[in-house]
């Protein structure tokens, strides 16, 4: 193939607004019957048993949904199961020698393969080790680890002994780790010495130690030796060595602890409107059923597939669709440690080619980068093993969608644009790939059994084509059950806005804006709260602001998301300094570093704009919309309601001058 884009074909694709599921895909799809939507409607909530039946239960449930204490719903009531047993033990007879995890390190040729039997063994040994360290049922274990096999092993080991895990993304800062460990009263940490990034061995343990310095209670720390001789930090101090612990448990078997369907499987902290991250609680029965069901119905996973989700396990996507969903279904899940551009920009395609990957699930930010690098990279490889493509994390624009469809999928793979959140546990709005047509840019209709709508501020449905707020009207098995030890905040954050408790109407508000087409397809427009989405990573503007105002010399700060070609959104910080503080480059760097220290490099501001005032309404509220318009170089909205309209143009000039 030539390096030149095929002009005729691009023109045809550019015009096409709807795509039918490819025939070759439909012929073999897990779900092909359109009647499934009706079946769920007519037989709701019992139709959800279909999801639970994908698992092995020690005791069956007596009731599918208990909604007697809304919005504290319970699913598969009285059911008993263990998640690690569902992801491992039950596959041993038939698939013990099949590959569970294909791990690909960043250094080329560094790989590890775990069959189900091997993974089972590793998980049992580490589960025994955790127990020996005194970890009991319901003790929260924190993991602060990059994409190394010991991360899913530790997660499954926790699941085995009924200890909920709380995984903190390795790119988060020491402070972020400390805050999460404190909030969860977590007394055990599993971390590692370091990892590779673009060919360099990076230290991780020093960061973990720094975090631990700020945790007010005692913590047992287990350290995985990822770097071997290249280790940057010596961990023969007070920390326990992972390998030594596991060696002591050679061949140990740990009986999976029987968990109630509603027992907590894990906690995952995520950003919200207010400063403190929210500890989203997911359960064993509902979450696992939902992850398995959506992996089956949407990702079309079959046990014999090799499936790859390129997310990081430190985010919910990795939990549901690298670890729990795929392993519950007994498939081969690929885990890649590195970045898509190392050692070259064809690394992803090399992996698809080498491993004959059948499904690829990635993010729009990655697809935009692939598109920018050009089709010459995928064209160097045989991608014909691919059967389905997926995207998640932020809206995907039709151009990127079509590029993905054409140059990665060769027009033979359906693309599923899946809308969901940390809180929803799994996919909510997307096409069933073997059933529904695709419309680039639109995620699709709600999945069968999921009830979503677009409403105005009164909660009334808006007309087709008009923007409004996305709401979910009925519970679903994968939903969060509460915010850890904070039922009140759970209600305030998600249910207060649109529920009418007097009429027994409980409506979940995900804080996204959206519009709906005549055919029920939903286009998600983005967050309507103070959360911004940088490269698919969810960041709270308040968290960033509080890091900035913590810098000596800063009087006030406002953070907004500005459009960014590659990242989707980028962090724009508007800062008012205290009298006498110089507004120089050095101070700007200090602010940037403070954000990196508090949250991590992902939150690094794209621009720090010094200003004397922030645009405020007469009641004193910062007009964030205007700050966003300024960041985007957009026409400014109405400024007449401002207390200080002049400041807007002053700031605008500064940004443009930057
Ligand atoms: C899974 C995940 C959730 C937020 C969500 C929304 C945005 C996710 C999307 C999407 C448009 C999609 N989002 N998928 N927006 N189209 N297909 O990303 O969870 O990190 O909690 O982020 O991401 O704004 O509210 P999380």
UniProtKB/TrEMBL annotation:
Residues covered by the AMP-dependent synthetase/ligase domain? 89-476
Biological process GO terms, please? acetyl-CoA biosynthetic process from acetate; carbon fixation by 3-hydroxypropionate cycle
Residues making up the signal peptide according to the UniProt record:
none
Entry's EC annotation: 6.2.1.1
Domain of life according to the entry: Archaea
Please give the InterPro entries that the UniProt record associates with this protein.
Ac_CoA_lig, ACAS_N, AMP-bd_C, AMP-bd_C_sf, AMP-binding_CS, AMP-dep_synth/lig_dom, ANL_N_sf
Residues forming the Acetyl-coenzyme A synthetase N-terminal domain are 36-87
Keywords recorded for this protein, A-Z:
ATP-binding, Ligase, Nucleotide-binding
Q: Say yes or no: keyword Coiled coil present.
A: no
Gene3D superfamilies under this entry?
A: 3.30.300.30, N-terminal domain of ligase-like
Kindly list the GO molecular function terms attached to this UniProt entry. 3-hydroxypropionyl-CoA synthetase activity; acetate-CoA ligase activity; AMP binding; ATP binding
Provide the AMP-binding enzyme C-terminal domain boundaries. 543-621
Q: What class of enzyme is it?
A: ligase
Pfam entry (one): ACAS_N
Family per UniProt? Belongs to the ATP-dependent AMP-binding enzyme family.
PANTHER family reported for this sequence = ACETYL-COENZYME A SYNTHETASE, ACETYL-COENZYME A SYNTHETASE 1
Protein name as catalogued = Acetate--CoA ligase
